[in-house]
Amino acid sequence: MVERENAACGAQHVAPAYGVSIVPCWRFRIVPDGMLLSAPVDRSAIESAVLLPGGKVIAMAFQNIRYRPAAGIAAFPDGGIPRYLRDREIIATLPVEGGKPRILQRLENEGVHGSARCYLCERPTRIRIMCW
Fold first, then answer.
1. Does residue 25 lie within any of the structural domains?
2. Residue 130 C-alpha from the chain's centroid
3. CA distance 115 to 12
4. How many domains does the chain have?
């Protein structure tokens, strides 16, 4: 029998002189949460747009989503859970000739991230906004 010290974890163990022994030595490393996430992804897009009566202004629903997907061991085995940095719906108007958009409403999604939707329906005298 040979007695030696395991340099990896400082544990003493006895191994047979003729064979190989495996001594479990578990070391847990604390990894900062940011290292388990990859670079931010911006998945913002216009969901719906309607030309307002009169033909000079466009109303639009814009989904503003930015998140960091899980990476490394945090993504195992099913892709992991992303960290949402921003998730909101924006209702705005924009002049057809160009210019700065006018934001009418910002709707923060505090529930299931990425699930909120807004749709604009044109009516003869007004626009209906449906959000779910």
1. no
2. 24
3. 55
4. 1
